[in-house]
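Run log, item B.
One chain of 388 residues. Sequence copied directly from the ordering sheet:
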Amino acid sequence: MLHAKILRSAYAHARILSIDTSEAKNMPGVREVVTGQGCDILFGACIKDQPPLAMDKVRHAGEGVAVVIAETERQAEEATKKIRVEYEPLPFVIDPLEAFKKDAPIIHERNHEYNRVPGFPPKKGTNIFHHYRQVKGDAEKGFQESEVFVEEEFYYPLISHVQMEPHGCIACWDSDDSCRIWASTQAPFIVREIVGHMFHIPFSNIKVYAPYLGGGFGGKSDVSIEPMVTYIARFVPNHPVRLVLTRKEAFTSSLLGRGMRGKIKVGAKKDGNLVAMKASFYYSDGAFGDTGCNVVTATGFVATGPYEYEHCNVGCYGIYTNTPPVDAYRGYGHPEAHLMSRTGYEYPGQKTGDVPDGADEKELPLGWQDKRSRPGDPKRQRRLIPMP
């Protein structure tokens, strides 16, 4: 069993000018030092935008730049201190609204070139890697017909899952096209699929073992360190390579729960009838967007909550920021959407002095109480419009 330790970037955004690993390679017990230089692998399930290690530049503080593989953890840790990296610091952005602006520092210059599955449209020359829209009727017309208005802004900070068991992985290559992986993961089949695509080998040649999990909460439902550990283990074939993140690394260098800034406008009648809604969600999805894009879609899809509007216009943006990437966390984008929709429902009643009796029943969309609004009613169908 060999052990890995990672040299991580102290910069949120910087170009890598050079990496000198010569002294580290001569440290006691060191078997190999691996960097992203010369690597052409990008991985992802929906958007292939992440390398196993930083290649030409780092995109968040804590991103891995070089890995030492040694006989003990202590030897690997000491050798990382001997690696010399020269950086050119670049402007960085951590707020999604700032990253959304046209003049924001571009985090991924190749955003529009990445291989991705259909349905996740990027916007070239920006930090927007996914834009989901839900449109019904004409929101502006609905506001003209409304008598009471509410406009609010919301902020969700980035959060950490803080699992009792941090991310851990062991990988071993038995041959050029066969490997075994032991991982603290909620998604062994996704790990297998990602690794198979990374190295162009059959899924049947990859065995993933997922022991009893010490907590996940969504933070292990996508790949995190598994692609990197599998990548570096390829440099020492027939030797298992083990990496377990420290608690600090779990905060700075794994997957976080999403951060979001949102805006909502609701128009209603004085009798409590909701007429129109317009909402925008700006997600801080971190340095890599693959594990955040489905959260964006989920939020946009449920943005109206359990309420029926004649008119709605929802825009949900997945935005690159110079922070760790995000993935699922207890609700997958639904809590943000429902907080905003519920607030938009209650505040008109507060402005008029009360929430009318039966208003909740009146706005329930499934037709349980209001016979005029039934499941499958054509006028209830939402129109989904992709970004041009």
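Observations after the first pass:
- Residues 363-388 have pLDDT under 50 and may be disordered.
- DSSP finds ten helices and 18 strands in the chain.
Flagged for discussion on Thursday.
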